[in-house]
Design goal:
The protein has about 475 residues and is of the alpha/beta class. It is built from 18 helices and 15 strands. The strands form three sheets. Strands 2-3-1-4-5-6 form a six-stranded parallel beta sheet, with helices on both faces. Strands 10-11-15-12-13-14 form a six-stranded mixed beta sheet, with helices on both faces. It has a three-stranded antiparallel beta sheet with strand order 7-8-9. A hairpin with a 2-residue loop joins strand 7 and strand 8. The longest helix is centred in the N-terminal third of the chain and has 33 residues. About 40% of the residues are buried.
């Protein structure tokens, strides 16, 4: 009977722990962030992100479940009174987050040791190869600029990039160890949520070339203010290899500010009379045409990509590609071949409707850009969005403004979560939007039901942003 009680308790504990453990993993094993989400009831609900059984997670689970098992053994062996069930319940339902934190703390020295081994291997592998190393950072446009630049460089070089948005220290390390082979160029996307993150990545990769994209209030919840974001992004130019070259996308005041302050080799894009910029942009549902002014020469460019931000990313990538020896004709040809990356202003058409899939985007600038693109399309317009998150103290103002901007373009609005529900609704109403044309969907199933009612032939649906599982 004792053995059965312990097994039942452990089984219930394992099931109850799932959401907490998944949240802990999605929070990057950050105990402070994990407890913040626990207290705010932002657990990792839903099926969008699964618990991934990495080697680190397996090590964690073994220790975590052993600690829980030890507690249940102690309780069930040494306590024989009416409080036994109560104590079991306390362990299962209340001590779960504390046991997660304790397991994480106990494993921290081991994880740091393992991490250093992998990083040392990656440094050694990268250091042995005589290749062109490029770092790309910024608040927005990192992944797009990386992919565009890689497409341009492939004419002359064999290019390796960090996959998807693998832009953390371990993500870049993994890319080096698993993907880098006999390549001529390595492009590392460098992300950050805290000051010092970019410096760590720059010291790992030691790039000779750097690209700084648009800077804005992304991850303001962890950075706290724009000044800290600027200082963090500036860690790339400050840590370039000796004699390195930086390209600055000057379409944001912060990036322009860092360009002016930088003392090394530098090029400015997306500013009139800069090294590279665009003019005469025309967009429709088929794509964009524009004049690319590159090193003083005007080139006619055409692309399937939509949006001013995408054009600016193309211009910035063109500057770096040209610096690395790609001809202007080859750059123009590469621009024509570009295809929209999945979920980033990706246009999907069928015989009944058009979908603009911008579900990967989650920033202010990108949302405005998506609405501008939507305005170029003809037909009934429906916007599906949960709004923007991780905006810190600006959460309400940002989403109130976004609600008004959506109202200026859309015929119907479907709001997908509780966090920004009132902000988006109030913002739309402030622009005289008919409240009867605003709908709320707490699940994807409900969203689909509403869409089926609203859709007509020839309509255009914009899916703007898609929340991670820890927001409902």
């Amino acid at each position: 009977m004792l053995y059965v009680n312990i097994c039942v308790c452990e089984l219930i504990f394992m099931v109850w722990s799932y959401l907490f453990v998944k949240t802990y993993q999605l929070d990057g094993y950050n105990i402070k962030l994990f407890f913040e989400h626990i207290f705010e009831f932002k657990l990792a609900y839903g099926d969008k992100n699964k618990l991934v059984f990495t080697k680190r997670m397996i090590r964690f689970l073994v220790l975590y479940l052993l600690l829980a098992l030890a507690l249940f053994i102690i309780i069930n062996v040494f306590i024989h009174n009416i409080y036994l069930v109560l104590l079991n319940c306390i362990v299962i339902f209340l001590l779960c987050p504390l046991l997660i934190a304790l397991s994480g703390i106990l494993l921290l020295p081991i994880e740091e040791f393992i991490k250093k081994i992998y990083i040392r291997k990656a440094r050694r592998k990268l250091g042995k190869r005589d290749i062109i190393k490029i770092g790309i950072t910024g608040s927005y446009g990192k992944t797009s600029t990386k992919n565009i630049l890689a497409s341009m460089l492939e004419k002359e070089y064999k290019v390796c990039t960090t996959p998807k948005n693998f832009n953390t220290e371990m993500g870049v390390t993994r890319a080096i160890l698993e993907n880098l082979d006999d390549h001529d160029v390595f492009i590392a996307e460098m992300g950050a949520k805290h000051k010092g993150d970019i410096e760590l990545l720059a010291k790992l990769v030691k790039p000779k070339y750097g690209v700084l994209t648009t800077i804005g209030n992304q991850h303001i919840e962890t950075f706290k203010d724009l000044k800290t974001i600027e200082e963090t992004k500036n860690e790339l130019p400050l840590n370039l290899a000796k004699g390195g070259t930086m390209v600055f996308n000057g379409d944001s005041p912060s990036t322009l500010k860092l360009y002016k302050a930088y003392k090394g080799n530098k090029y400015l894009t997306n500013q009139k009379n800069g090294f590279a910029y665009s003019e005469n942009i025309c967009m429709d549902e088929h794509g964009s045409t524009f004049d690319l002014i590159l090193d003083g020469q005007r080139l006619k460019a055409r692309t399937k990509l939509l949006g001013q931000c995408n054009i600016n990313n193309i211009v910035t990538a063109s500057a770096m590609a040209y610096i690395l020896g790609i001809s202007k004709d080859d750059i123009v040809s590469a621009i024509k071949r570009l295809s929209p990356p999945p979920h980033r202003l990706e246009v999907i058409k069928n015989n009944y409707s058009t979908i603009i899939d911008d579900s990967y985007n989650s920033n202010v600038v990108g949302s405005q850009e998506a609405l501008e693109v939507l305005s170029k399309f003809k037909g009934l317009k429906i916007v599906v969005t949960p709004g923007l998150v991780e905006m810190g103290t600006q959460q309400s103002n940002v989403n109130f403004k976004l609600g008004g901007q959506i109202a200026d373009v859309a015929d119907y609005i479907i709001i997908m979560n509780e966090v920004n529900k009132n902000y988006l609704f109030s913002g739309a109403i402030s622009h005289n939007f008919d409240k009867n044309k605003i709908f709320f969907a707490s699940t994807r199933k409900r969203q689909k039901e509403i869409l089926q009612v609203l859709m007509i032939k020839g309509c255009v649906i914009l899916f703007e942003n898609d929340l991670p599982d820890n927001y409902k």
